[in-house]
Design brief:
OB fold (Dihydrolipoamide Acetyltransferase, E2P), five-stranded parallel β-sheet, Rossmann fold, 2 domains, five-stranded antiparallel β-sheet
Length: about 250
């Protein structure tokens, strides 16, 4: 079988570089292209006709599922999802026999995904369109967002209502929940938490910060395209240029 044409779709350059580096070890002769947004991915698939797509799910301005809808399930190449989604969604991918890489992944996990992708490319992919269509139907259903989060302090456990949370802040392998008083720490990635929060109520303003929109009192310009978000309690947070589009949609 000739080396396939591969497209890497991820809005984060370091994430694309990681997949490209791992691919260079497993398939050094493969033709590899990259796309950093939903629009770029749709154009790259239409113009380049890749055999395989490593498709990130969460991207600014859209999702990997928007790419599938834009191309059409029947016309999509083979897909390996790259995701920080919660494991309930991952389980749906497993049931449908669509492979995935759960961030963060290592070289061994990537090698296993690549091996399965190679096997799929080597045989008929007649069932892929149906599988992708079922996934689209599943993720398109109304979903329940987090209403409360279980937190621990010593041996005591309690719930914090998301409605009471001012902002979340990534701290190494933990996320600090700021809801008044001392922050609570939970062991979860910010990306995973973001996927379970209502996007109409919470917005990511920085790679390490998610804010409840109703807690924002004022936004002031700053330097180099960044801005300062001032919460109603006076707390000042940075709105990075990368995430400005979440607050100020481009026209």
């Amino acid at each position: 079988m000739p080396e396939p044409k591969i497209l890497i779709v991820d809005d984060e350059p370091p994430a694309r570089r990681k997949v490209r580096t791992l691919l260079s070890r497993e398939a050094p002769a493969a033709e590899v292209r990259e796309a950093g947004s939903v629009e770029e991915a749709i154009l790259a698939i239409r113009d380049g006709a890749p055999d395989l797509v490593f498709l990130d799910i969460q991207m600014p301005g859209g999702t990997g599922f928007d790419v599938i809808e834009g191309i059409g399930a029947a016309a999509m190449p083979a897909v390996v999802f790259v995701t920080a989604y919660d494991r309930f969604a991952v389980r749906a991918f497993e049931v449908e026999a669509v492979d995935y890489l759960l961030k963060p992944f290592d070289a061994d996990r990537f090698r296993a995904a690549w091996s399965r992708a190679r096997s799929r490319l080597a045989r008929s992919r007649g069932g892929d369109a149906e599988a992708l269509a079922r996934i689209l139907a599943e993720v398109g259903k109304p979903r329940e967002y987090l209403r409360r989060i279980l937190v621990s302090r010593g041996s005591k456990h309690s719930f914090v209502r998301t409605a009471d949370i001012r902002y979340f802040e990534a701290q190494d392998n933990y996320v600090a929940i700021h809801a008044g008083g001392e922050p609570h720490l939970i062991r979860e990635s910010l990306a995973s938490l973001e996927s379970r929060l209502d996007p109409d109520r919470f917005v990511r303003i920085h790679r390490s910060i998610i804010v409840q929109i109703d807690q924002i009192g004022e936004i002031q310009p700053w330097a180099h395209g960044d801005a300062i978000v001032i919460l109603r309690d006076g707390r000042r947070l940075t709105l990075s240029r990368r995430f400005r589009g979440r607050i100020f949609p481009e026209r």
